[in-house]
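User: Fold this one for me? It's EARP-interacting.
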Amino acid sequence: MDDAPIIYGLEDFQARALAAHSAETEKINFLVGTQSLRRTNQVQLIEFDDDTSLVTKQTFEHPAGEVWKIVAAPQSPDIIATVYNNTQDYCGEFGAAIWRLSLEGSLSGPLDDTRCGGEQVEKLCDLNGACDLDAQIPGSPVPGLGSQAWSVVWAPEKDSHLVTLVDNHVYHWDVEAAGRSARVIGKVTVEGRGTVSLGSGRWYPHQHGSQVAATHGSSVRAWDMRTMKPTWVWSVRYNASYDQLVLTCSSDQRIILSNLPSIASQPFGTMVDQEDTSKEEKDKVEGTEEGVIQIYDDHEDSVYAVEWSAADFWTFASLSYDGRLVINKVPRSVKYKQFM
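Assistant: Here's what I get for EARP-interacting.
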């Protein structure tokens, strides 16, 4: 029997920004950014104890505004980046920035959930999508990213590279001085009929972190960051360890876990020596079915984000707009196939 989902509420906050705590590989942590026009918005660090099924949190104020996207640095557990909507002056202007979280004592032990107020994220550097190739000065004002600043995505293995998606532009950033400065080193403009707006983005976890994919309407496009030239891919929510497992989420309140062995670098069952594998076993591996593994319907509102855990590649979290965070696991039957 599979484990029951763990459901956690964000206490009267709406939210659509969710990220795995990438640099934390010993504990199952996720980051959530809230959206409120009346209260000071927050970044919440959520910790899930797999042994006790308990959820604890540490909260940081995000006074810059509503958090639309959040991503964690892959090497530094205290560094994050967000795309936010500045609601302080009711100007509705988007910005993006790199921040530091005060995690003293939280890295070596469990989170202290009594530290729930007063602490703020510390701004390190602004990410202005319209800037030139000059480095950004820490603490400088955000000139504005326009109304379609959709995403910020860190490279899978390096703190020094990230990508922002702004309107129909892809910006490749070189991040320096532990997040305190950044400069644009590459740019792609996507052309198309009418207004082109790029949506959610993701680095491909293999190929040495050289490819980035982004949603464009009902399709997905990708670029090689070494040449800034486009390619086409299947999806953007790969499992970092088993890239044939792909997650999608949508406004119909569902999360879909799919099996796509045709795009995998090493499909289930290919770990064994091919010379020692019988024809029957080879046919079984090669005939692995593509398609939907499971549909999850634990949400009651639009699901805006889904993320794999950085510590346990069988665990993932999803976040719906009503502030419901759901933590699920890949079915055990799928796990067992990997070792067959």
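One thing worth pointing out: The chain is about 5% helix and 45% strand.
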